[in-house]
Amino acid sequence: MIFDIITIFPQIFDSYFSESILKRAQKENFIKINIHNLRDYTNNKHRTVDDTPYGGGAGMVMMVEPILRAVSSIISNFQFPISKQFSNSNSKISKPKNTRIILFSAKGKRYTQQDAVRLSQYKNIIMICGRYEGVDERVAEHIADEEISIGDYVLTGGEIPAMTVIDSVSRLLPGVLGNKESIEQESHNEAGTLEHPQYTKPEEFFPEGQSASGENGWKVPEILLGGNHKEIEKWRNEKQKHR
Looking at the structure, do residues 113 and 217 belong to the same domain, yes or no? Predict the structure, then answer.
């Protein structure tokens, strides 16, 4: 899968995508992440990507023109013809069927695990990271396929949501996680369901300063130590949390 991120702060992503599972997924060619500086798609010496909003108001709004140029350039690399991008003024930009264009927006649909599963079926995902007061609405109307929000709060930009989507989608792709059960048994596989509690060694832990007499230790539930897998599975099902 190929992820293309359009941003005005490309270096934000350097550390996160260079560690752990996402680093290995790129090295083993399960995913490819391309970062595009929106300022490279401007047509003036100041590399301007924003302007004042029509009708007045605080802040600046990101302009539609450089965003369209960036998206068009990315799509052109898919070997897909875009010479006639629009059939009428209300149509969306042309693109391959296996490509999804996402605009991160506070007014977008709240992102869920079910969205991650849906997006994992695409070959190419293009992500537009907004900044400032917002993005010209024509981007949502004519370029993006959908608007996504990762929660009911305001962020300074779409870069963190882009990391969230790439992380959550990538781990669903075949081969990215070494153990298939890690996906099958985790939280949110079913809407509103959270994974059961997990424990590891030692069986009994004594925080510093507490007595080792046994009565004050933090213990692993006995049922997990007995080896009865049927009873363990029953306990885990009972301990799953439902939102």
Answer: no
